Amino acid sequence: MNHLSTSRFLWGFLAIAIAAALGAAVWTGLRVWPRQGGWDERPLEGLKNFGAVPDFSLMERSGKPFGLVDLRDKIWIANFIYTNCKDTCPLQSAEMAGLQNDLADKADVKLVSISVDPERDTPQALSRYAERFKADPDRWLFLTGEKREIYRLAQEGFRLSAVPASNAGQENGASILHSARFVLVDGKAQIRGYYQSTDAEAMKRLSRDLKKLLRRDMR
Description:
Blueprint: H1 3-32, E1 34-35, E2 38-39, E3 57-60, E4 65-67, E5 75-81, H2 89-102, E6 109-115, H3 123-132, E7 140-144, H4 147-157, E8 162-166, E9 174-178, E10 181-185, E11 191-196, H5 200-218
Parallel strand pairs: 5-6, 6-7
Antiparallel strand pairs: 1-2, 3-4, 3-7, 5-10, 8-9, 10-11
């Protein structure tokens, strides 16, 4: 084998070795993350600090203006839904109803559901939807308002997805792609965790983290 052939052989062997090493590294990395039921989202939990909720001005189902100031010094759990949703929204609201029952003795904890379909989700529509889940008007708030404001709040404030998606096969002609996460916010409007509402274990962790926040506030 001459010098040129030897060099080509060595470079080819080296390239294969590097590709194999990279492939093994990627595979190892992927194996660390997946867990039963989906990707491991625990890094978004555990009472970390994910930034502050920006000020907002919306309307509650009662027809009264509602903003961040109305949640001052309150621990709250937020989610994004819309009343015509046939996918995760009913499940999210059922989970919220369960939290409402579990937190019946925690008057300072609020639940806040924000509509991503404000054009159809008027205060009256939200009131009818809230009644289906026996939402206590003093504890579980339903917000609507100007569409641009809501999408800014979802995407830039909470850093969650909220995107109208045309779908001719959907009832009423459209669907909305949006996150099914619950967001835990402390009394200083700091986001402390994101919890996948469709994951029963994540919901248990939400309850545990919420109780930790409550104990800290009592000190």
